[in-house]
Amino acid sequence: MKVLILGAGVIGVTSAYYLAKAGFEVEVVDRQPGPGRETSFANAGEISPGYASPWAAPAIPLKALRWMFSRDAPLILTPRLGWAGVRWLSAMLRNCTSARYAVNKGHMVRLAEHSRDCLRALRDEIRLDYDGRALGTLQVFRTQRQLDSVGKDIEVLKEAGVRHQLLSPEQCRIVEPGLAAATASIAGGLHLVDDETGDCFKFTQALASQTARMGAAYDYGVDVTALRLARGRICGVETSKGVRTADLYLVALGSYSPALLRPLDILLPVYPVKGYSLTAPLLPEALDRAPQSTIMDEHYKVATTRLGNRIRIGGMAEICGHDPVLRLSRRRTLELSAANLFPSVANLREAQFWAGFRPMTPDGPPIIGPTIIPNLFLNTGHGTLGWTMSCGSAQVIADLLVGRRPAIAVDGLELHRYD
Ligand SMILES: Cc1cc2nc3c(=O)[nH]c(=O)nc-3n(C[C@H](O)[C@H](O)[C@H](O)COP(=O)(O)OP(=O)(O)OC[C@H]3O[C@@H](n4cnc5c(N)ncnc54)[C@H](O)[C@@H]3O)c2cc1C
């Protein structure tokens, strides 16, 4: 049986791996010249089940109001948000209750932990080089007030069984010795010890090569324009290189998934939330002073991650549709966060500046599983932690397509939760 996967980001490629492993004939198409060239290209490099939480949290409406008056705010609304943005924001606000947050977080943690197990099993099966490290995430709080507000998160971590340690400033500097040179004050930290780091683009590329060796066909430079429907089933996909056919179709187009499905009256509440990153080689003399893993600066909500002999600084959320402009004010915030915590470890002026669009659902969990069309399936909407949730999501979709019961419950992950 043949599956045509639309999209070769980290979600499409991990899906290809688990579907090929399950015995399907797999074809993947993507408009880019290779895998992982859009949102999976330069993300913050965290594999962080410990950080898997919806943005739609009880404190967010008040914080968002405050951020409207701050130059370095982590969340920025722009006039370009459009009606889709307004609808998405109001759906997100409806999820900002304690009860909804707890339910949504539960779905995300369940998937993220399954994903971590799947990734570990994958690494036992095949060797993948992606500058991977397993040294945890350190959330750094600059003020006592930020530190005090972490109590609720710790309760949630305890409930979910996520291993963590609350650290004094001195302990933060033991975990990340480079913080000894920080010019910002540090009130304390929260160490999520089981989190991992790496380069998502390298991971996606390596896994695509492995999957191709397993027999999957990858076709790049192919723009998908429409789905063809006949007698209630998808009978082909129109592309810039002709019509492609298969028995089953899987949409993994990230933040571009809704546009393809709208003509079929399948409405995906997935919005492109723009984020930025900077990637710079470390100065040779600064390797010891540089971050060892991911440091999440809770003041700016910016993550700085060690990737081999480079650092990646990522964060910010702009609600501006698919506006590709790279705004220098965002670059400044990223530089400020990293320079405060790890001064002079890289030449940030020469860093590669990048932006990508997180495919965000308003409630938080991605959308995985069937649609109203029997041979059309979805694996999209992974938002802030798509790499973290990729292997688990792909294993779940492979299980569903084979007709096997997935290892985790899929309630709260399927499209019909929005009915
Ligand atoms: C700044 C930033 C930091 C982040 N940090 C992290 C992190 O630390 N950890 C983490 O787990 N996640 C992180 N994320 C989120 C993560 O990067 C995304 O959730 C993930 O990359 C989404 O993968 P995807 O495959 O769904 O989308 P994409 O990677 O965007 O893949 C979709 C693919 O579809 C293709 N496509 C789209 N439309 C068409 C079309 N019409 N025809 C043909 N092809 C098409 C694109 O070319 C693309 O290759 C971050 C995101 C951002 C922006």
The tally of strands reads 20
Q: Which structural class best describes the helix and strand composition? A: alpha/beta
Q: CATH topology of the largest domain, anyone? A: D-Amino Acid Oxidase, Chain A, domain 2
Shape: globular
Overview in brief:
With 419 residues, the chain is α/β, with parallel strands linked by helices. The protein has eleven helices and 20 strands. The protein has helices at 10-21, 60-67, 82-94, 98-125, 144-148, 151-160, 169-175, 200-213, 257-261, 328-341, 386-402; strands at residues 2-6, 25-30, 46-47, 75-77, 137-141, 165-167, 188-192, 196-197, 217-220, 224-230, 233-239, 242-244, 248-251, 271-281, 294-297, 302-307, 310-319, 352-360, 367-370, 376-380.
